Amino acid sequence: MSVQNILSKQVKEAVNSIFEVQLETVEFQPTRKDFEGDITLVVFPMLRQIKTNPAKLGEAIGQYLVDKNPEIKKYNVVQGFLNIVLDDQYYLDFFGRMKDDPNFGKVPKGERAIMVEYSSPNTNKPLHLGHIRNNLLGYSVAEILKAAGNEVYKTQIINDRGIHICKSMLAWQRFGNGETPQTAGVKGDKLVGKYYVKFDKAYKEEVSYLLAQGKSEEEAKTQAPILQDAQEMLQKWEAGDSQVVELWRTMNQWVFDGFEKTYEKLGVDFDKNYYESNTYLLGKDVVDEGLEKGVFYKKEDGSVWIDLTAEGLDEKIVLRSDGTAVYMTQDLGTALQRVQDFAINGMVYTVGNEQDYHFKVLFLILKKLGYEWAENLYHLSYGMVDLPSGKMKSREGTVVDADDLIEEMVATAKDLSEELGKLEGYSKAEKEELYRVIGIGALKYYILKVDPRKRILFNPEESVDFQGNTGPFIQYTYARIQSILRKADFDYQENIFEYKLHEKEKELIKQLELYPETVILAAENHSPALVANYTYELVKEFNSFYQNVTILGTEDETEKKFRVQLSKVVGQVIKSSFGLLGIVVPERM
Q1: Are 442 and 409 in contact (CB under 8 A)?
Q2: Separation between Cα atoms, residue 501 and residue 87, nearest integer Å
Q3: Are 136 and 176 in contact (CB under 8 A)?
């Protein structure tokens, strides 16, 4: 239990004992640097229930805490703030417990099971920069939820059907001359993406020709022969035409194989893949159920709708008049399918913020249908990622390819590492692996340190800086700690019960103490940024400690033991927190 939880309970006891008032909540904050204290109780909010002077209230609570808790050394009151000074023994006891806890910061697994959906690509193009943010967020949130005590299943729904898929297929038939990923020597997703771009080029040429023939813009866009052929191909696919289905399977498999290679580079994985070609017919039974319950209603043309105007939304179609599904129908059916498959009681959908409205409607419909687990649905909405060069467009081939960006990050890490001359004595293979660890770590940290809801302007070179709030800076600090541990001639395991803490040691332990509550907070907010920025603060605190005290050079054996132990635990927490972000930490750097 953290000091905040312990003190919260004792403050409530104090107020009840002195003033006969029951407090529901107690507010703490770190003590400001210019005042003496380790943690500060904010007295002002209590004045709503206790009619007295804030200074007197602070004094009364402070004296009660000192009398009742031997770990509270003293206190001081500054206006409406009670600054509490904890005895060194509190920190030593806490450190003794945490250093021997291999699961420090993680909660034992409970009964809650959550599915996290992320990636969800289309099979007509390779993954791009936007997919990278999606994958990194989804994977990290899944790991954080797991650390917070949940059973977690990671999934993606692959959009492997529709007119956009047929466009790539048709272009390959027309212009491909039978080439395959093997004959072309390229990843399958890149090959298929090339033909998506070729389709768009041919389509625009046909539209221009029709416009020159006197057709209106709308006529030209709908009557372009290549588009009509793609629409005919989709109809054949839906009718089960054997040749079209065989081509679809072949080209999709090229893309799946390509995706797997990118996922491996990114270090993300999935417990189950769902495919839209299997799920697009789901949900019609949900519509029938909703009609029976009076949640949906049928219009004269036979289409089925839900009226959400009372909730400040609008009317939403859930089934077309010809009986075909819309995306909402599929999402309703897929949600139910997942609950049946995994007995989950909550889901997180990692999807860009352009879909905010869709998920509001989806969650509301599921709640109206009476599903209890619908209370535990969350849209992990995130902003776009921009590069200094501007916006990306898939069909024009101007997208920032995920594989290309990953390789650029590795190359940037290589250039900076060689410039700084940090890798003497490394073999070529060791260097290449380290460049990859640094480059991918820089990419992940730069993206994950930002609140998911905010738009990012991604600067590759800035992200691979070895100074400041970056992945490489934190990785370098971890490697520095491992160097200290290697130089220490033995592993100091014994507990130290009597020791006068240096101020820098105390500040470092205070930061370590925040790790478990940071994990819980990050899980509650679905925000890897909280873990990323906590880790940066921990690393800053360690570097201040490192610069202000002697670790291995001190002649005091107890001091040396304690400082090596403290360094080791800081390293363990960095490794643990970076693990939640999906970032590897190098033992040497």
Answers
A1: yes
A2: 10
A3: no
Chain-centre distance of CA 578, in angstroms? 12
The string of pLDDT tens digits covering residues 499-511 is: 899 999 999 999 9
Q: CA 390 → CA 26, 251, 306, distances in Å?
A: 47, 30, 39
Closest CA to 57 of 80, 36, 40, 89: 80
Domains of the chain: 3-86 (3.30.1360.70), 163-274 (no CATH)
H or E stretch including 130?
helix 129-147
DSSP, residue by residue, 301-366: TS-EEEE-GGGTS-EEEEE-TTS-B-HHHHHHHHHHHHHHHH--S-EEEEEEGGGHHHHHHHHHHH
Which amino acid appears at position 473 of this protein?
A: F
Instruction: Give the residues across from 433 on adjacent strands.
Output: none
Q: What's the rounded Cα separation, in Å, for the pair 252 and 160? A: 7
On whether the CB atoms of residues 589 and 476 are closer than 8 A, the answer is yes
Q: How confident is the model at residue 491 (pLDDT cuts 50, 70, 90)?
A: low
Q: What is the DSSP string of 403-449?
A: HHHHHHHHHHHHHHHHHHT--TT--HHHHHHHHHHHHHHHHHHHHHT
Q: What is the pTM of this model?
A: 0.91
Report DSSP state, residue 459: -
Pairing outcome for strands 315-319 and 347-352? unpaired
Residues, the chain, total?
589
Structure tokens at 68: 């009742």
In the chain the first and final C-alpha atoms are separated, in Å, by 36
Pairing of strands 272-275, 151-158: parallel
Amino acid at 36: E
Lowest pLDDT segment from 32-41, 61-70, 382-391: 382-391
* CB 373 within 8 Å of CB 405: no
Bridging pattern class, strands 272-275 and 385-386? unpaired
Q: Is it the case that residue 489 has pLDDT exceeding 90?
A: no
Task: Name the nearest CA neighbour of 514 among 39, 13, 83, 23.
Answer: 39
Q: What are phi and psi of 30, to 5 degrees?
A: -65, 145
CA torsion angle for 307, 351, 375, 277 (degrees, to 10)?
A: 70
